[in-house]
């Protein structure tokens, strides 16, 4: 049933009107309560940020902080399916324990109590990349993590860190797992000799790279590894054809077979031609992408 109420003040020779606002008790937003704890110690984590987002589009974010006992409570605007996560600097983002697909179905007028979110302390890896010239060029170190503990599972990028002027890097907040590290240019530098990706401890292919096992809260300092210039360089030229490439602007990219980011990218000329200079020896894949005409 619906309830409505209003007060009217009637004065002589005045006609009073009012609008009645009907409030449905079922429109009350659901309440979410729970606790954020450290994994694996089980200790409560204070001042963690708990975020609730619409599972459909990631919008309508609402946030709150945990108290000294690691507890939180939050009322969302409306019923629906929501994703919930907890985060704190130095920890890996945590999600509800036992949640189906990391989402919860929150119903109007109800509440979700005793929700448990666990945060794992992230690992830290520091080190340096050295160049024979003594001056390390701009670049980034990538942390590639095996997607599962199975030997055949592929590696994917989970974090990256810029090299400073001394070639030093610091990767932090890394989830537990098996890792390989790679150093690569920040982007293709036209007119310069780019350095190919190189893997720790100084090898040119990912299969030869050393694996690193990281556990919660590990802090590891690795030995320096070299970033060597190739012994020879090559030139690649070609043409991209098709109606969508007329006028130029198509991006041609070169990928090494075992690194997930483009090694080199360049835009085509108005006639669809392109040219890469100073490409080191290796096995590559090439692709082209054109803007969609409006």
For the structure shown, list the relevant keywords:
five-stranded antiparallel beta sheet; mainly beta; 294 residues; four-stranded mixed beta sheet; disordered N terminus
Structure summary, number of beta strands: 22
- Report the principal-axis shape: globular
Poorly predicted sequence stretches spanning 5 or more consecutive residues: 1-26
- Structural class per helix/strand content? mainly beta
Strand content: 35-45%
Radius of gyration: 28 Å
Main beta sheet: strand number and arrangement? 5 strands, antiparallel
- Give the topology string: H per helix, E per strand: EEEEEEEEEEEEEEEEEEEEEE
Query: Total helix count?
Result: 0
Mean pLDDT across the residues is: 78
Please give the alpha-carbon distance between the first and last residues. 52 Å
Oligomeric status: single chain
State the helicity in percent bands: under 10%
Explained architecture:
- It is a single chain.
- The protein is globular, with a radius of gyration of 28 Å.
- Mean pLDDT is 78; it is low at 1-26.
- It has strands at 31-39, 49-54, 62-65, 71-75, 80-87, 91-92, 103-106, 111-121, 123-130, 140-146, 155-162, 168-174, 177-184, 198-199, 212-214, 219-221, 225-226, 234-239, 251-256, 264-267, 273-279, 284-289.
- The strands form 6 sheets. Strands 10, 11, 13, 14 and 15 form a 5-stranded antiparallel sheet that branches. A 4-stranded mixed sheet has the order 4-1-8-6, with no helix packed on it. A 4-stranded antiparallel sheet has the order 3-2-5-7, with no helix packed on it.
- The chain is mainly beta.
